[in-house]
Every structure is written in C-alpha cells, then in structure tokens.
TrEMBL record:
It comes from the Bacteria. Its EC number is 2.8.3.16. GO terms for molecular function: formyl-CoA transferase activity. Keywords: Transferase. InterPro entries: CoA-transferase_III_domain, CoA-Trfase_fam_III, CoA-Trfase_III_dom3_sf, CoA-Trfase_III_dom_1_sf. It is an enzyme of class 2 (transferase). This is Formyl-CoA transferase.
Length: 398
C-alpha cells in the first residue's frame, strides 16, 4: 500500500509562468496535490527554455514542473476561457501570477470564479499586490527584492548592491503563497466550505523576512546598511579566509563565543568581562573579526572546520553545486533524488522540503511536455475525441 500524501485529493489549477506561481504549485504538487498547469499553445511557459537546456528543454523546468500535468489552452479565446472555467469549477485552488486585472479582462476574476465555485481558494501573486497605487506596475522578483529592503543590504559597503544568486524574491513569494493556501484550506473546513483570495505581493514577501529593519528605524532612526558577509549587531558571525578558501563561523552565542576564542588560542578574549554578552562584543566587532581572521588565515578550510567542530562551534564551508552533490548528509536525508525526464534523461534534482513523518512528499511524475496531458484532461471533463479535434483545429487547445 502506497504512503498517503498530505494534499492527496486537492485539485490545483495553475495559471501563470516562470517562477513565483509555478514554484508555489510545484510545492503543493510535491505533497500530493493534483496540479493541472495551463500553458499557451505554441510557446508554453518561457521557463522551458531558461538557462541550461538538455534535449530542447531546460533542466530547471524538470524541477519546477514535476508532479504537474500540462494542458495547452488559449486563454485569450472565448472557448479557452470557457474550458478554464469548467476546470476551475471543480478545483480547490487556483494559482496565478499575472499582472492584476488580466484575469478580470478574461472574465476570470475573483467575483466571477467565487460565484462559480464558492469553495475556491485563489492564490494571486503579483509584483505589488491586488490593491494600492502600484498595483498596475509590472513587477519581477528583482524589483520586489529591491523594494522589500533586501537588495540594499546585499554587497560590500560603498559598492553597488549585488543580487542573491537565485530568484529569491519569487520563491519567497511562492512560499508565502503556499502558507496562505494551506491556511485558507484549513479555514474552509470550518467556514461552510467557503474559499478566499490569498493576495501575495513580491516585495511584501521579501519585506516580511527583513527582521528588525523597520523597528530599528522606528525606535532609533537607524537605517541598516550593507555589511558584506557580516551580520551587524550579532557578533561574531562572518566569513573568514583560509589558506585554500573561506569558512563561515557563527560564534555569537555567549557560551559559543567563549569556546571559539579558546579554540583559536585567544583566552584573553574568551575571559574578557565585556565580551561575555553580545552587546559588548558588538563594540569590539572589528577586533574580534581580525582575531578570528588572523587564525583562519593560517589554516586550511578542513583544519578550521575540524578544530571548531571539536569545540562545538557552528562552522561550515561555502558549498558549490559540486560540494552539495558529493555531500553524504544531503544523500542521507534524500535531498538529492534521481528523476527520469519524459525524454528518458536521468537527472539529480533537489529533494522535498519539509520532511513530513507520516505523509511525506514524493516525485510522482516528471515534468510534462507542452500540452502533453491536454487530451486526457479534456476527456476527464467529458469532451469527446471529435470535440477535442475541433478545438485543436481552431487553435483553442494544442
């Protein structure tokens, strides 16, 4: 008997493309939801061709669209919109990341869909949200990262801010969207089966993880500035050069700091009364970083890690893709899984997060070809082969 999944029986319709909406739907699909992805005929989701391509398809696509079925449907046509309505009428969740007003122009706005399916939970991810003076502006994750306050803090002081090396604004929005969907599904059970809108703005998802940024400004007028690899106000926590690379050391706990200083042969700092708490260490942050950096600079990465782990100090190397692929801990926790694509290629892909003990997630199916499930989905709606052929000839489906 197969292991049950947490979202088994939940039907999700995914509209939109690229990262935020599709990442949210992928996450729901990993835990058992039946995800039907609507793509435009001909081109499909642009992510199919982003970054590195194998046999005509992006390997990123293979991760982002696993556990989904694809129907190629022209949403700009009246017949295509009618098919979408019928799909949504039977769905639990609709995920979309169009610019606000797009679905309304197609007759697929919240009011119309809620009347059609009162239990529908509608996740709407956009640059600036469904309301407010900026709602109609185009918005991508990078702009959300900037407006949310993150981009100002990334990089070295006095230099142009740099981006985090992944589309963090989009994925943060997607994860917040998943939280909203799960909360709305839970609420639906005790609310007469009524659904609701989950409105996620890219910049708000970023802003929500900005910790004490605003309270510090509110209380002290303090504007946090970029600090490179350090975390100002939490000392010591930084990256340090070794003879063959660099390590991250987090020695900011009071007892951890003492063990760290003893491990690097600085008992004077370990026992200094003013350094016993974080407030005192903040006053001498540059001195502490210099002391740690002087010690790490005389050792290899492996020597530093071995010494500090023996002292029970949090430390780690800066991992590359190769480091991750070769790490036994990743494999022990099933965070590197093998997936066979629809074209027969075998890829290693990221595993599923979080780990659920009773209803774990799983990769049930590989990412679909464009429109590869169109006929099956339409037949499931009761359409005959002749009707499907007519829709295909008219360019409504593909």
């Amino acid at each position: 008997m197969s292991t049950p999944q947490a979202l088994q029986g939940v039907k999700v319709i995914e509209m939109g493309q690229l990262i935020a909406g599709p990442f949210a739907a992928k996450t729901l699909g990993d835990f058992g939801a039946d995800v039907i992805k609507i793509e435009p005929p001909g081109s499909g989701d642009p992510l199919r061709n982003w970054r590195m391509v194998q046999n005509g398809t992006s390997v990123w696509w293979q991760v982002q669209s696993r556990n989904k079925r694809s129907i190629a449907l022209n949403l700009r046509s009246a017949d295509g919109q009618d098919i979408a309505r019928k799909l949504i009428a039977e769905a639990d969740v609709l995920v979309e990341n169009f610019r606000p007003g797009t679905l309304e122009a197609w007759g697929l706005g919240w009011d119309a869909l809620h009347a059609l399916n009162p239990g529908l939970v509608m996740l709407r991810i956009s640059g600036y949200g469904q309301t407010g003076p900026y709602r109609d502006r185009p918005g991508f994750g990078v702009v959300g990262e900037a407006m949310g306050g993150l981009r100002h803090l990334t990089g070295e002081p006095g230099r142009v801010p740099v981006r985090v090396g992944v589309s963090i604004g989009d994925t943060l929005a997607a994860l917040h969207g998943c939280i909203g969907v799960l909360a709305a599904l839970h609420h639906r059970k005790a609310n007469g089966g009524l659904g609701q809108v989950v409105d996620v703005a890219l910049h708000e998802a970023v802003f929500n993880v900005m910790e004490s940024l605003i309270p510090e400004y509110s209380a002290f007028g303090a504007v946090r500035e970029p600090a490179g690899s350090a975390l100002p106000g939490i000392t010591p926590s930084n990256a340090y050069n070794c003879t063959d690379g660099c390590v991250l050391v987090a020695g900011n706990g009071d007892s951890i700091f003492k063990r760290l200083m003893l491990a690097i042969d600085r008992p004077d700092l370990a026992h200094a009364p003013d350094l016993a708490v974080n407030a005192g260490r903040n006053q001498r942050a540059a001195e502490l970083d210099a002391a740690i950096g002087s010690w790490t600079a005389r050792h290899t990465v492996e020597e530093v890690i071995t010494t500090l782990l023996a002292a029970d100090v949090p430390v780690g190397r800066v991992y590359t893709a190769k480091d991750i692929a070769e790490d036994p801990h990743y494999r022990a926790r099933d965070m590197l899984l093998q997936q066979t694509t629809r074209d027969g290629d075998t890829l290693e892909v990221p595993g599923i997060v979080p780990k659920l003990s009773a209803t774990p997630g799983a990769i049930r199916s590989a990412a679909p070809h464009l429109g590869g499930d169109t006929d099956a989905v339409l037949r499931g709606m009761g359409l005959s082969d002749a009707q499907i052929a007519t829709l295909r000839a008219q360019g409504v489906v593909a």
